[in-house]
Automatic annotation (TrEMBL):
This is Putative iron-dependent peroxidase. Its cofactor is heme b. Belongs to the DyP-type peroxidase family. Keywords: Iron, Metal-binding, Oxidoreductase, Peroxidase. Residues 15-144 form the Dyp-type peroxidase N-terminal domain. Pfam families: Dyp_perox_C (PF20628), Dyp_perox_N (PF04261). One of its GO terms (cellular component) is cytosol. PROSITE patterns: DYP_PEROXIDASE. It comes from Bosea lupini. GO terms for molecular function: heme binding; metal ion binding; peroxidase activity. PANTHER family: DEFERROCHELATASE/PEROXIDASE, DYP-TYPE PEROXIDASE FAMILY PROTEIN.
Length: 327
């Protein structure tokens, strides 16, 4: 791997390394086109760390955290022309059978805690402070399901990088020094057809995912006619280096509405790594042999953001505020 090799998660990075929580809220908003909306949104972003303290201090053991990601369009309004090198809108994919749509989003708030009420309270106060400067595009409350399983019944998150591999995979390094310590974030909200999935025999479900269902053991599918999800999402470059990402997927749902979903969220040092995973999943390897997980899981959103370090976020917001104040 090239560039800086992190020996720890830098203190200035947002809480990307926060452990898998029991509860999470994924909030995506767009910011109004007027200057007043931008000014108000900047003020709310400026107060974000204080708001985490205000709510989080009420139960420190519940480890409330909030990561903010900024989309390409908003970043260009805040600091035109000076963007993280790979930041661009989510590229939609048209596969032979399944498509991945690109949907709007200026700001992503990834709110995590051991307690759903803390996530709720934080989101409530955050939206109060954003007021009419934003329009909510999507809001999902996720929960931990048994031993970190998705609603398809498989343990999700096992292959995530840990220790020193975590910042090396998830945080930008010297290759883009102005934005080092930040992270590209891609989200997709998937809805599952659980009825159809339940009709698939367990051995075939396991071949589709690439792990056994009960005990979560990896399945070698080198010689299998169709690659599993796990293999399609494994990215090895021309030099033989494997490129991981950090996922913090969460189940969500409303059984009364027959709504069952997985909120995919991936943090990555290089946006191209997630883009390549998506290409392999939707187009297939070889082309046509797409990820059969998609026969039972449909993406309803798809948006890319960049989560800068705290000092970069502060500088970005303060420079924009100074410009807005002067105009
Ligand atoms: C419906 C949505 C999805 C579900 C339910 C899902 C579920 C899973 C499960 C159960 C595993 C195996 C255990 C693990 O290592 O975590 C896995 C692995 C993985 N998934 Fe997904 N996934 C979804 C979407 C995605 C997407 C959209 C991406 C990337 C763009 C992705 C990337 C990965 C990666 C990188 C691995 C680990 C591969 C390895 O073993 O190295 N997943 N996923």
């Amino acid at each position: 791997m090239t560039g800086r090799s992190w020996d720890r998660v830098p203190i200035e990075a947002q809480s990307i390394d926060a452990p898998l929580s029991r509860a999470a809220v994924f909030l995506v908003v767009t910011v109004g086109g007027e200057q007043a909306a931008l000014t108000k949104a900047c003020a709310a972003l400026d107060g974000l760390d204080d708001l985490v303290k205000t709510v989080g201090f009420r139960d420190l053991g519940a480890r409330l955290s909030c990561i903010v990601g900024i989309g390409h369009g908003l970043w260009n309004r805040l600091d035109p022309g000076r963007l993280p090198r790979e930041l661009k809108p989510f590229t939609p994919i048209a596969g032979p059978v399944h498509d991945a749509p690109s949907t709007p989003g200026d700001l992503l708030f990834h709110i995590r805690s051991e307690r759903p009420d803390l996530c709720f309270e934080f989101e409530r106060l955050l939206l109060d402070s954003l007021g009419d400067s934003v329009t909510v595009v999507d809001e999902v409350s996720g929960f931990r399901y048994f031993d970190a399983r998705d609603l398809l019944g498989f343990v999700d998150g096992t292959a995530n990088p840990t220790g020193l591999a975590l910042p090396a995979s998830a945080l930008v390094g010297d290759e883009d020094a102005d934005f080092a310590g930040g992270s590209y974030v891609v989200i997709q909200k998937y809805l599952h057809d659980l009825k159809a999935w339940a009709e698939v025999p367990t051995p075939l479900q396991e071949a589709i995912i690439g792990r056994t269902k009960i005990d979560n053991v990896e399945i070698d599918d080198d010689d299998a006619p169709r690659k599993s999800h796990k293999s399609l999402a494994t990215i090895v470059d021309a030099d033989g280096n494997e490129h991981d990402i950090l996922r913090d997927n969460m189940p969500f749902g409303r059984p009364g509405q027959r709504e069952f979903g997985t909120y995919f969220i991936g943090y990555t040092r290089h946006l191209w790594v997630i883009e390549t995973m998506l290409q392999r999943m939707y187009v297939g390897v070889p082309p046509g042999a797409y990820d059969r997980l998609l026969d039972f899981s449909r993406p309803h959103t798809g948006t890319t953001f960049f989560a800068p370090t705290r000092p970069t976020l502060e500088a970005l917001v303060q420079a924009a505020q100074a410009k807005l104040g002067a105009s």
